[in-house]
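Reopening: structure tokens for the acetoacetyl-coenzyme A complex, inputs below.
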Amino acid sequence: MDFHLSEEHMMIRDAARDFAQTELLSGVIERDNKQHFPDELVKKMGQLGFMGIMVDPQYGGSGMDTISYVLIMEELSKVDASASVIVSVNNSLVCYGLEAYGSEEQKQKYLTKLSTGEYIGAFCLSEPEAGSDATSQKTMAIDNGDHYIINGTKNWITNGGRADVYIVIAQTDRDKGSHGINAFIVESGTEGFHVGPKEDKLGIRGSDTHTLQFNDVKIPKENRIGPNGSGFRFAMKTLSGGRIGIASQALGIAQGAYELALKYSKERKAFGTEICNHQAIAFKLADMYTAIEAARLLVFKAAKDKDNGHDYDRSSAVAKLYASKIAMETSVEAVQIHGGNGFVKDYHVERLMRDAKITQIYEGTSEIQKIVISRSILRD
Ligand code: CAA
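Re-run output (same inputs, fresh job):
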């Protein structure tokens, strides 16, 4: 694997870094405090091509590779993980799912708008009683000839109150288990579709997370994605790509926390010298740096697997498992290096620490990643 970025990749990374520093940084504490969704910034990210990074230009996307996606995600996440999860869900779970498995009509109707940021997408799999155990969901879609009727509840849905297009995973035939599941496109405003109250979260507070209710929601047959019964495989494949996005988000949180801690340690004095000169701090910085380097290699490996057409179920789970672990550890250490200042909002590291936790939970908990990895290595 080539570890050096091309000129083009460096330009993409620098554009994302510039956007994060000039546009995301100034309001990030306030958005976190007030749980404000960054509507205007999402529009700008759409104009920059960040909402459809890997989508073919014929559908309005930027036509970039997965390495570019990872670089953009890392830069956005260093500053604002709430903004980056909007990007990740739209790119990995919605645009990818439609481009890889949708019909030409679905791509023209929805993907062309999702990839430019004109529309925002949401991915609805989790339920009150089915988060990790995805086949046990209760939402039902009944086949009624030329349409389906959907009933059920989905929760913890990112972009839940803001999306224009929802990809909804539902049972169509309980007796068939994972083969009796389908994915459907539901447009916001469809009769019977209700958005519940916004969740008051520990982290990624600038993102929009809701419970959704489906009461006799009627959708046309052509809104089913892929052949009958393919919804579970669709969800698993889509989530594998999503895990590369969340791994790069975790990497960005870790890198952001490390950079802040490094800078602070060179400025803050204690016992007559800058604190970075004390081995207690210098060793922490060395550990943080090493863990981040290792995580970045794993994230790049998973992205390369995807770009090269190799299987990436295992490498994306490995990258997410490790990057989310070190995001948590690194951000905790960054708070520690900041001492009392780390515990107040102005220094940003407490927010990064709160944001880090979700990377060990969504798009499959760390325990789910271990299931995916162990099943894969035991099959070898
Ligand atoms: N690719 C293709 N097929 C796959 C697959 C994959 N990656 N994973 C499973 N399958 C197939 C299996 O081969 C199997 O097919 P057969 O029956 O024909 O053999 C079928 O699907 C069922 O697979 P399993 O028996 O492995 O299924 P399981 O019930 O044991 O579950 C699991 C596997 C990995 C635990 C899965 O349920 C899972 O990933 N759960 C976590 C779900 C998750 O990530 N939720 C997050 C919600 S989305 C989110 O957070 C988005 C957001 O808003 C940010």
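The longest helix spans residues 231-267. The radius of gyration is 21 Å. Marking as resolved unless the reporter disagrees.
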